[in-house]
Design goal:
The chain is built from 22 helices and 47 strands. The protein is of the alpha+beta class and 1016 residues long. The chain has four domains: 104 residues, no CATH class; 312 residues, Rossmann fold, CATH 3.40.50.11780; 238 residues, no CATH class; 249 residues, no CATH class. Strand 44 and strand 45 form a beta hairpin. Helix 13 runs parallel beside helix 14. The longest helix is centred in the C-terminal third of the chain and has 20 residues.
């Protein structure tokens, strides 16, 4: 305190206490960064969590890779999510942690269809000639069900035409060969050379009627194209024959009897001596579409190959990068006064109330995107617009509404809200503007700059979605009276028509020993029936060859779509006004039970088709729902009659808003809510691999030295590492990607940490052990011969010399604390947990090794460690440590322990030990923050003193806590010279003498004679 601040009146002694010994406030903790897979969550967005419970909320429980389920429907990863276990291990004892979830991405320069592009392709081109026009090369095959005899058609040439409806009921993806139906052909059996005709592209009668509609299906586990290699599972070929139907309670329910696990087609992952290996898997099934469409006592089935405009196998090609799910656009009400009016302008809206067809009649307002990239969110959530209120205030024309994110499995009578945003509006100047209430920020990776670019104006307050506002709304260019009144449905394939053509001969035959073309032949031509064979036509027509005594047939085939609620008076509602019109997700129109086939309807589209924008030839918008098309059968403005949805009713002048002449009528009656689905999210993974980032063998997704422009999974991992390269974008003091052993990527991790200078990479070494997710052999055979030598040789050959990296060996056995499952995990998981335990019990400058802080059996890993993949001998531990690989040892009495703490620096110095490197990372980061607070202060001794007065007590605290033996801070005229001052520079020198950890304990036991004295 300056003497001038004292008030001197009469003589005396004035005392003021000044405390310069206060330690500077330590900034918020900085945790590690973990890169890898999880059940769900934001992809390629570094997300910081403070606890494991918060991690589970965002990214889901860790997956042990042993969950038995309908694999296609569940989407649960088949391989362990090692990164999630590493996060759990760290968060057990320390926080925070930043997680970067991996999904399948690809370079903008990706050209190689097989490896450079993310996603998957059904046809296995390594087993055939790349797909052939006769359908035997593998691909996607649709099982279509078609009503029979709806108009009383009669058999025989010239009989009454059957005009029927049909639907796609299931999709079978074949790696090679094609599925076929076996049974009575429509019109009766037809024998060709004494063999009953069976095959695809031929109508087969169902074995029974409703509700089962059963069929006999044959699936060929054999190569389908000429020149293909022999199927190792059975060189002679196997025909799997089974009865299928669509009744969930039946033992022959299609999802019970057919393979739903794509990885069972991968001979690297399935024992080829068993009958488990498959040539196909069942993908989508559309039970609700079957219920809604197939209504007769029997039906026909037909298998057609699903193609695209370009290739016959496009229907089984999902080769594109991960994408987030979206809703369709929400659009406004029709503001015209239409009472008693059904003029030509109004009729522009028929029949689906298309806002683009309406030419300005309605406005697009907004749509939602999931924050989490991938497929999981569309399986879990739906979005409802509720409490739509028009303005009753002449001074404020904007109305309001509520946006609710609901559990997709709930029903309108028992709603389950996940998030809810009330009193939203479309006024950009209002604090309740929709974009402000929910958030509109999103991130894109700049491939040239190798950094993440942020877009949007308002911070995302929702954990699930962000909103995209229509530009006209954001610019206040729409009528302030508009409100969300409807929604565009998901994109689907365009519907088509089948017509029959009589042909007496030319059917293919199928026996148990010979595979021939599975399509019907006629007039010397084949009919592959791929949906791209007639391009440019929204209403496609297919010709079906049939026996000449069958009745002519015309079938209108619809692709499944998310159904709409048709009536407000269903069983679960006590009050009709509780009904949410729009999308519904139940098994039938009157059911309250969630229909899992809905997640198949919202799955993204194959081929080159966009999942979000219809091209009006190959794809179309499912529907355009609007409250303007809700009908009140009472027909008055006040009474409530039978309320139902009828597409096109406003254009016909029969809807509630048309009859009353105002959109307010339906809101005043209490029908002010509707629901929309999210769709099109995609993981971008090869679903035929348990581990999408598989790095072993000739089929590795990331082979050695994989260029990122040629290997999508290498691009994905490198992209996540490059996000960490910018310390101003991602904070972190450790970096790990558990299970990634590709040497190019792990070297890049080390170089990235060294480039930052404030983080250390914990990598897994290559070799020694192949995980079960990459190899079907026995556990014994997955351990390499001379495994320690292999690991040491691999690491030595890399010639790494950096203190910014460390590695451990061997793999460890851990227990999942949630499910109780046991699994082998890479050593980085245990090492990561031990570092967290070390920091909790001591400090980063203590060695995270030994029985006190590295005792894995004693709980130092943060998760239970019960075994090591290989029990190392003393010589093996020495060999590993000489190569700077830290052994994880197992001792009979002491248990499992981390028995080393070397970095990957070969040059002898204090920095060849982990505790010293982590000390320096901690010290540099904290002192940098002290210095940052002095930027732009006067470059004078008083500022220098402020720096030293904060740094000295900070370092003294570390010295007292056994991190430093001694230190010295020099900042004066000898370091900051006049020349530096003129250049606006402060130059300080800090000398540190790190405390070394005990790694060797030498004890001499001296045996003396009886007369010797110990004092000698």
């Amino acid at each position: 305190m300056s003497a001038k601040n004292f008030k001197f009146v009469s003589p005396g002694v004035f005392i003021e206490e000044i405390d310069n010994s206060q330690l500077p406030q330590i900034s918020d903790a900085i945790g590690p960064v973990v890169i890898g897979r999880s059940r769900r969550g934001p992809a390629f967005i570094p997300t910081t969590v403070q606890s494991f419970s918060e991690f589970v909320t965002i990214f889901g429980d860790p997956v042990a890779g042993q969950e038995a389920s309908d694999q296609w429907r569940s989407g649960v990863p088949k391989a362990p999510t090692f990164a999630a276990y590493a996060a759990q291990a760290w968060l057990k004892n320390s926080s925070p942690l930043t997680f970067v979830r991996l999904l399948g991405d690809q370079s903008s320069q990706a050209a190689n269809e097989t490896t450079a592009k993310a996603g998957w392709t059904a046809a296995d081109t390594s087993r055939n000639s790349g797909g052939s026009t006769d359908g035997t090369g593998g691909g996607a095959y649709g099982l279509f069900l078609i009503n029979s005899g709806s108009t009383g058609g009669t058999l025989g040439a010239g009989g009454t035409v059957e005009d029927v409806d049909g639907t796609l009921a299931a999709v079978i993806y074949s790696r090679y060969g094609a599925p076929i139906l076996s049974g009575t052909i429509r019109g009766g059996d037809l024998s060709v050379n004494g063999t009953t005709a069976t095959g695809s592209n031929v109508f087969v009668e169902s074995l029974d009627g409703a509700p089962n509609y059963s069929f006999k299906l044959r699936l060929i586990n054999q190569d389908g194209a000429a020149g293909g290699t022999t199927n190792p599972a059975n060189p002679q070929g196997v025909i799997e024959e089974t009865v299928i139907n669509f009744s969930r309670s039946s033992n022959n329910y299609i999802r019970k009897v057919l393979n739903t696990d794509p990885t069972k087609t991968n001979t690297n992952l399935v024992d080829t001596d068993s009958d488990v290996v498959k040539s196909y898997f069942l993908g989508q099934t559309y039970e609700r579409a079957v219920v809604d469409t197939i209504t007769g006592s029997s039906c026909y089935g037909v298998i057609l190959q699903l193609g695209g405009e370009t290739n016959v196998d496009d229907g089984g090609k999902f080769k594109y990068a991960t994408q987030a799910a979206q809703t369709g656009w929400f659009f406004s009400q029709d503001l015209r006064n239409t009472a008693g009016d059904a003029d030509s302008d109004l009729n522009q809206l028929v029949p689906e109330y298309n806002p683009e067809v309406g030419q300005g009649v309605v406005d697009r307002l907004f749509k939602f995107h999931t924050i989490s990239t991938g497929e999981e969110e569309q399986r879990r959530y739906k979005i409802s617009i509720e409490d739509i209120r028009y303005s009753r205030n002449d001074n404020n024309p904007y109305g309001s509404f509520t946006v609710s994110i609901r559990d997709i499995k709930d029903n309108d009578g028992a709603r389950v809200y996940v998030e809810r945003y009330s009193n939203c509006n479309l006024d950009p100047s209002s604090p309740n503007y929709l974009a402000k209430k929910i958030g509109d920020r999103y991130y894109q990776w700049d491939e040239q700059e190798r950094r993440v670019v942020e877009y949007g104006t308002y911070e995302n307050l929702s954990n699930i979605v962000r909103v995209e506002m229509a530009p006209a709304v954001d610019a206040s260019q729409v009528n302030p009276e508009v409100l969300p009144f409807g929604n565009e449905g998901p994109i689907k394939y365009s519907d088509f028509t089948i017509t029959s053509a009589n042909q007496e001969e030319g059917f293919s035959d199928q026996t148990t020993t010979t595979l021939v073309t599975p399509v019907v032949l006629g007039s010397g031509s084949s009919y592959p029936m791929n949906f791209g064979s007639l391009t440019g036509s929204a209403n496609r027509v297919r010709t079906m060859v049939e026996p000449d005594w069958a009745a002519p047939l015309t079938a209108s085939i619809n692709f499944p779509e998310v159904p709409l609620r048709l009536s407000a008076s269903t069983g679960e509602l006590a009050n009709q006004k509780d009904a949410y019109f729009g999308a519904t997700f139940t098994r039938t129109g009157s059911s309250v039970v969630y229909d899992q086939s809905m997640q198949d309807v919202v799955y993204p589209l194959a081929g080159a088709a966009s999942s979000f924008v219809a091209d009006n030839s190959e794809t179309e918008t499912s529907w355009y729902f609007s409250l303007d098309d809700v009908v009140d059968a009472d027909g008055t403005a006040t009474a409530l009659g039978s309320v139902f949805y009828q597409s096109g009713s406003r254009a016909l002048g029969t809807s509630a808003t048309a009859m009353s002449g105002t959109y307010k009528a339906i809101l005043d009656k209490g029908f002010d809510q509707f629901t929309a689905p999210m769709f099109g999210g995609f993981n971008g993974f090869n679903i035929f691999e348990k581990e999408p980032f598989q790095q072993y063998g000739t089929d590795a997704a990331i082979p050695d030295n994989a260029p990122e422009t040629e290997y999508a999974m290498a691009y994905s991992v490198r992209k996540a590492i490059d996000m960490f390269a910018d310390p101003e974008f991602v904070e972190g003091n450790l970096l790990t990607a558990p299970g990634i052993v590709n040497e190019g990527l792990t070297t890049h991790m080390i170089n990235t940490c060294e480039g930052r200078g404030d983080a250390m990479a914990i990598i897994d070494p290559k070799g020694g052990y192949t995980p079960a997710s990459a190899d079907a052999r026995t556990e014994e055979n997955r351990i390499a011969t001379n495994h320690v030598r292999q690991v040491v040789d691999n690491m030595t050959a890399r010639a790494l010399n950096s203190s910014y990296g460390a590695t451990y060996y061997p793999w460890v056995r851990i227990s999942d604390t949630i499910t109780g499952a046991s699994l082998w995990a890479p050593p980085s998981v245990a090492a990561f947990g031990a570092m967290s335990f070390n920091d909790n019990q001591a400090a980063p400058w203590f060695a995270p090794a030994g029985f006190n802080r590295g005792g894995l059996s004693a709980g130092a890993a943060g998760i239970p460690v019960t075994n090591v993949r290989s029990k190392l001998t003393s010589k093996e531990r020495d060999s590993l440590y000489d190569a700077n690989i830290n052994p994880i040892a197992s001792f009979p009495n002491e248990g499992i322990v981390i028995f080393g703490q070397k970095t990957l620096q070969v040059t002898p110095s204090a920095l060849d030990r982990i505790n010293v490197r982590r000390l320096m990372i901690f010290v540099k980061k904290e002192i940098s923050r002290i210095a940052a607070n002095l930027l732009f202060e006067p470059n004078v001794p008083a500022t220098w003193a402020r720096f030293t007065s904060q740094v000295n007590p900070f370092l003294f605290g570390i010295k007292n806590d056994f991190g430093l033996d001694a230190f010295k801070v020099v900042l004066d005229e000898t370091t900051t010279t006049p020349d530096l001052i003129d250049r606006n520079v402060i130059y300080a020198k800090i000398f540190l003498k790190p405390t070394k950890a005990v790694e060797f304990f030498a004890i001499d036991f001296v045996i003396t004679n009886s007369g010797a004295g110990f004092e000698d």
